[in-house]
Amino acid sequence: NELKQVEAFDPYRKVEAETIAWGYGLKTRETDRAIYINNIDDGEFLMLKGVDFKKGARRLKVSASNEKGSPAYIEVRIDSPNGPLCGRVKIEPTNGFKTFTCQLKGMSDVHKLYSVFKGESGSDLFEWDWWQMSR
Questions:
Q1: What is the mean pLDDT of residues 14-39?
Q2: What gap in Å lies between CA 120 and CA 135, rounded to an integer?
Q3: pTM to 2 decimals?
């Protein structure tokens, strides 16, 4: 028995990465300051239902930490994990958490939002704290 969504999800506010409708294989790490998504492997994804992009999201900002040494990516897709590619954030190697951004296209109206993870190292690509879109 699936619960009905009370209202559309607002992607223009700061959203904690652990806010998900569905994810596969991911875990969280909690500190005294925050909760992070971790154990992110190539090909895994997070999904949020009923995200209202209104007349169009143009930019995505994410906070992530990549101490693995090779770049990783978050592909922003709508409707399915293989749906239209609307943007791609490159998560460069870091020493701690840093903010990364990308341009978005083709994101308007209400859709399922998929964050699909890609990386050459294959497993435990990076840790993800939060994200926010802008128009």
A1: 81
A2: 31
A3: 0.90
